[in-house]
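Input.
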Amino acid sequence: MKRLRLIAGCLWLAASGPAAEFPSCGLVPGWIQKGPAREFVSDNLYDYINGNSEGYLIYGFQNMRGVTCVSGDRSIVFDVSELPDSESAYGLFTSNRDPREPLEKAGMGAQVLGQRAIFAKGSYFVEFAASPPDQDHRDALRAFLLAAEKLVEGTTALPDPVGWFPAEGLDHASIRLVPQSVLGLSMLKRGYVAQYEFGRAVIIQESSPELASALMGRLRQRFGQTEAASVAGESFTGSDKYLGRLVFFRKGAFIGGFVNVGEGQDLVASAAALAARIP
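Output.
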């Protein structure tokens, strides 16, 4: 089955009863819709989430459908955003989750807090915001999240690079997709970053080994004095005013490395451990 398409209307499911439309307040008994359904595209998303629309647009946001659900004095804002692909949806999820709080097993990732719940599945990012703010709404939010997750088409598998970071010393909650200017460098267009006890790791994919090799050349120029290392296809170590001790390597079309590495940590060994996990 082809993935659901919001604007085309395929998310308005061919079912019967109060849950026939999606997003729908009828997914959870006792909740009804208040006001009209919402629909936004990239050109007018700013009208809905003034001040935060850029955080969606940088992941390739395409469109959003939403409804407001009420039950007594409680309300839940229920929004479904479509992204270009599952990687972008996962990236938007990681940028919105609270890394200090645990995740739940739903979709590619899910989180339920007192006033908010989110999940990503396939090319969709789904979010719920509950009020009043002085109440804990976890039970209702979890019920909506689990019901909605069953209706959203798409993969539940994490993007491959998430599993390539070596586990030792890794803060798993820190892994995220950065959609532009990775590590603050405009030449690094898009990639994954992760925090370790001793520094930060990065994985970037270019469209070909040749382009990845050219990017390695630009990185060497950017950092000035570097020393060749013996990791994967090509690699170097160096230092930077902002990124500290660093190491980069290329393996096929992938570039990986570590920055802000503490003194005493072996740069080459750290890079080799990461490179070994990249196919």
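Residues 25-151 form one domain.
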